[in-house]
Amino acid sequence: MSNKIPYKIYLTEEEMPKSWYNLRSAMIKKPAPLLNPATLKPVTEADLAPVFCEELIKQELDDTTEFFEIPKEIFDFYKMFRPSPLVRAYCLEQALDTPAEIYYKFEGNNTSGSHKLNSAIAQAYYAKKQGLKGVTTETGAGQWGTALSMACAYFKLDCKVYMVKVSYEQKPFRREVMRTYGADVTPSPSMDTEIGKKILAEHPGTTGSLGCAISEAVEKAVTSPGYRYVLGSVLNQVLLHQSIIGLETEAALKKYDIKPDIIVGCAGGGSNLGGLIAPFMRDKIRGKLDARIVAVEPASCPSFTRGKFAYDFADTGKVCPLAKMYTLGSGFIPAPNHAGGLRYHGMSTTLSQLYDDGLLEAVSVPQNDVFEAATRFARTEGILPAPESAHAIKVAMDEAIKCRETGEKKVIVFGLTGTGYFDLVAYKKFNDGELDDYIPTDEDLAKGFAGLPKVDL
Ligand SMILES: *Cc1c(COP(=O)(O)O)cnc(C)c1O
């Protein structure tokens, strides 16, 4: 059987999913609602309307609709870079001398280099449909900002990106890709917003953080007529759009009658993982699939494995709704030497609930192991992975090595979310032996937890 499976399993245009799948519709315990930070009551459509696009708010708050049809305009754009291949990692299997079958869904085949374009194009489309002038957002390492710039260029929308200052300075190439697609990129914190000025006054010389850039982008959106704020991860709407990854994977596996035993994905805010696992988690919840589903996070930013399941602020400026999630506290910032991405303090509310219910597992891995796995993967499978993606590679490889020891022929599927061409400073540090594996102590984490809001429901 296995020799019949091609190196890459593609879908035809007809076989491509025509709808997104809403994983929340299958959950028995729904994710806890977002709360209005002023009233501590569940947010309403009206609360969110000044910040987000109308159609996206509907998607965000809908826990019951199973499928959302993909609008033709979005599907047409998807066709430029989708379907993405599901690759049978024959070379890696051989190198690991494992009886396991390893598959990866590769999302790096587009200029932005990651899965983020799947949601960027959807969000830009709904903004355009609403007649808006433009959107604002934040970007850390720059993948989301790049994807959104591409999407906005396609639909002729204005795009304002607040880029975490340290990345703005250290990743000039990402910045130039964004500008090439027409985006306006500002290093954050900036003097452009009230919250930026306040943060700069309190912390002069700060190199910024994702939480701070979010606050600036939200402020800019609500104070600029015709603008809304868009976000590349964490939110339910983003997981919905990313379900295209899981649906394609499911369709590709079905073609060859393959059932996964272990599904692995990296988790920053949870969007690629939530998308990859969507149909599989549904089947698991319904007792139709007996598979382990594993989230992988950095040991230096361990939201799932060491965080608390509590309501928290999504941003440093505390302007966004409160979300009940596994969190390290909105003030948490990973050690300066952390190079592998996935640095958000919180996690998708959907994945947080699934983890709390024991349906999702999580492991954390130190960064030198991650870069070692990335290097091995690059040398065997040919693709230079994003450091984020390499978290999933590391754990998929560990599972395959366990199979070598037990002789089990497990089917392992993992998400290869992107390429690492813009992460060469991180690779350089690894190659020069300059990465350390600093893992936050309980005292380090206690500082973040101390900033959790007191919300009793
Ligand atoms: C943004 C990003 C991630 C992490 O984000 P999630 O929302 O957790 O998926 C992972 N890999 C790549 C390549 C990314 O750009």
Question: Can you describe what's shown?
Answer:
The protein is α/β, with parallel strands linked by helices and 457 residues long. The chain folds into 2 domains: 8-16 and 70-113 and 240-449, Rossmann fold, CATH 3.40.50; 19-68 and 116-229, Rossmann fold, CATH 3.40.50.1100. Helix content is 42%, strand content 16%. The chain is built from 18 helices and 15 strands. The chain has helices spanning 45-48, 54-61, 72-81, 90-96, 117-129, 143-155, 165-170, 172-180, 194-202, 210-223, 236-255, 271-285, 303-306, 349-356, 367-381, 387-406, 424-431, 442-450; strands spanning 8-9, 19-21, 67-69, 86-88, 101-106, 134-139, 158-164, 184-188, 227-229, 262-266, 292-298, 308-313, 322-327, 361-365, 411-416. The strands form 4 sheets. The chain has a 7-stranded mixed β-sheet, sandwiched between helices. α5 packs parallel to α6, α9 (194-202) runs antiparallel to α10 and α15 (367-381) crosses α16 (387-406). It is globular, with a radius of gyration of 21 Å.
The strand line-up of the biggest sheet is 1-4-5-15-10-11-14
Ligands in the model, by name, code or SMILES, are: pyridoxal-5'-phosphate
Shape: globular
Task: Extract low-pLDDT stretches.
Answer: none
CATH domain fold name of the largest domain: Rossmann fold
Biggest β-sheet, characterized?
7 strands, mixed
Brief overview:
With 457 residues, the chain is α/β, with parallel strands linked by helices.
Name the features:
binds pyridoxal-5'-phosphate, alpha/beta, 457 residues, seven-stranded mixed beta sheet, Rossmann fold, 18 helices, globular, four-stranded parallel beta sheet
